[in-house]
Predict the structure.
Amino acid sequence: GCRETLLALRLCSRAWAAAVSGALRRFCTRTVPSDGDVDQRCPVDAHEVPVVFGPSAARMCIVVQPYGAWPHWLRDVPSCVFWTAVPPARLASDVRVVLAHVPEPSSLRFDMMGAWVPDELVHAITSDSQAAAALQSIAFDDARISSTVAAKLAKLPSLAALVFNGRTMRSSFLGIARLEDPMGDSICNAAVTRWLTACPHLRQVTLSGERGEVSDGTLFALAEHVRSLEHLDVSRTADNVTDAGVVEVAKKYPALRYLNVSKTGDKVTDASLLVVAARCPQLGHLDVSWTRGRITDASLVPLVRSCPNLRHLDVSVTEGKVTDATVTAAADSCPQLWFLNVSSTYGKVTDAAISAISMKCQLLEHLDVSLTCGSITGASVEAIAAGCRRLQHLNVNAMFNSVSDTAIAAVARGCPGLQHLDVSTATSGNITDKSLRVVAQFCPQLRLLNVCQTGGFVTDVGISAIARGCRELRSLDVGSTNGAITDVGINAVAACCPRLQRLNVGYTHDKLTDASITAIARSCPELQELAVCAASYNVTGAAISEVALHCPHLRALDVSNTFRMTDAALVDIAERCKGLEELRIANTDNTITAVAMDALAAHSRRLRFLDVTGLELADEAVQRVQQACAGVAVCRDR
């Protein structure tokens, strides 16, 4: 933890510490906009926020704060600094260590892993008068919070942003099921209301994922007590937030700049969005995805026309109710647009709208046109490449083979800053090694590549080229590539991409062996997610033990359908990878026994999902894991 990192630093000279501080400042921060389109994970007025790649880097950032030409440059403390799966007294002690080195934090973030926010943690924050006075944003992910704790935190005098993300399974390419929270809702309405009542100066409120307690009543309380709200996120609140609550917010807060009503069921409709259009002209961020077709062109067209500062627009999964009309209106009225997601719009958004975006929104950085039923083709993707040269994120997954090598090569040549490329589910040979070689040549900053289910037309040749040309690669998905990816390609990745964090080599027709997985383990210490499912007899417990030894930050592992997995390997994972959250060991030929379950119960307190389907485990062994890992979801044969 921070103590160990601090002790290591004290053994070094002040000059060395100053040099490390300067290097970390350059390497681990980025500038974010302060015009309303700030991600919910950032404080409201942040300019520099930390971008760290694991707990070790984050803690080093903390302990070097007193040193260098720019001391105390870090004010936004990320959640990976804190190890929350410890007794409350230890967590509180860690907080005090952090506050000793970051005496005036702007924001603190905690990933509580489904646990209650303890009084000791709150006391550590509120009892430090200097930190309490400076703190503007506090965030709890995957947490449970009582009204008493909320009342104590509400006393922070400068608090402007309240971020509360309720319990949810994290997104990963391991296919983790989205299961209902067995512990129920995480925050009571009384806690929210008390917090809102005591913090009239809040400007950012995120209450995401609370199915039962965040409701219209919460929004009415918000409108009654909070003076100048700018940012509201009530996503994943099912049917509890309705038009009435959104209308109340829109009428009260004409300076609203951020609104997320994603996954609010079918109770937020065009009626409330029309009020937002009329009352909130400064809106910069709008997410209406997964709203069951109740939000349509009827409200979105006037909204984008009345909000010229709109920079983020997500209309994905809107059941065909959002069409070219909305996207074309955004192109005409919102020249600063940098994020557009039209995924799963049932073919109602076409080349015409995307071509309009390419001509009028030259600041575009993020484009998702996946699952659009072939209505968007390579022609408009090539137009984007020509007109939006700042593009960093492109998702053309499942495009009904309407995007080919030609379009991807055009993007690579036209958008050299490309960092995220998803061309998965292109099974007819339209995406091949040819375009990947061009990407490798022109896009050295590529961080994520997804070529799963590409029909075997992406091979070791393309992956090796990517490895050599894109050495900053963080995430690689080559699952289900019909055996075209072998140890050769993965060994190239191990040799060239030491910062890899996510790797999926599942269902590769037994072409991967211990050799390449061991190479990855030894060369990529930042690895966090690994899927080697369906490797039959070729990937064994020996390779997984190597992963445990060299990759302590691993949080998700899928070894399903690998028939030479062992208890010893899983014991190594449990003992060495303390942050393990997701584990799939289904159908491993009964090589896993209660020994592995006991190791998980003893060491993997952050475990959230466990798949033991097909294993002959005694109920008592699984129950011990469930008792030790509060709220863990277990998938098994019934």
User: Anything to note?
Assistant: The chain is about 35% helix and 15% strand. The CA atoms of residues 351 and 379 lie 7 Å apart. Residues 14-27 form the longest helix (14 residues). Residues 34-47, 168-186 have pLDDT under 50 and may be disordered.
